[in-house]
Amino acid sequence: MKKIEALVLDWAGTVVDYGSIAPTSIFVEAFKLAYDFELSLAEARIPMGMGKWDHISALGQLESVNTRWCAQFGEAMTTAQIDYIYETFMPLQKAKVAQRAAPIDGVLPVLQRLQTQGIKIGSCSGYPREIMTELEIASAEHGYRPDYCVASDDLNAGSRPGPWMALENVIKLGVSAVDCCVKVDDSVPGILEGLNAGMWTVGVALTGNAVGCSEQQWQALSTSEQSDLSRDAFSQLAGAGAHFVIASLTDIEPVLNEINARLARGERP
Description:
Blueprint: E1 6-9, H1 21-35, H2 41-45, H3 52-61, H4 63-73, H5 79-97, H6 107-116, E2 120-123, H7 129-141, H8 164-173, E3 181-185, H9 188-196, E4 200-204, H10 215-220, H11 223-239, E5 244-246, H12 252-264
Parallel strand pairs: 1-2, 1-3, 3-4, 4-5
Helix pairs in contact: 1-5, 3-5, 5-7
């Protein structure tokens, strides 16, 4: 009988870095340092989940950004300018990522329980390898050590929303069938990655990019504000095609039970 053999987890906003704060703030800083260009945090979040060079390129194509960029520089963002912003971004992100490496409260015990049940923990990220190595080292000091990890530039084929990083986990972890794997992510490109790989997909709404608040910021919001942001986040990830959407990775176990029941009935993603 088929059952779940592995999870493929995103990092920032899913397992570590409540609110996916580290990457978004650095995009704003990198644009400012590289070209004295004002980028908002809301704009920085829109392509979140993509590889970081692709993320910068996508930001340049946003209508709001492109309009201001053309007004400031006289033409659309060039490849050379994307390269320079990326080069500016990398050392800033490398310095920042370890500060946000602690697992989100309650996540680590859940993952440890799943591992005792024989479920493997894979992972992938929009971070490039240079940054990912720093994050892996820092998160290991907090007790989080996934069984495998793929960075956005590890594979020649590319990264999200393509299926390649997720499928590389299937290969390296020795999963017997793709539909025995669950992709968990807080971003739309990450959900599309799982769907393109033929996996069950689970969106993480409240601790990640869809809300974009640190834990302290979230707790400071009114009940009404939390309700509005929660509704929008669940809708965004469900609209991307996620089979399930949960508030936090701490809520994953009932979902896995439901997926196992569906697998037992012969259902597929």
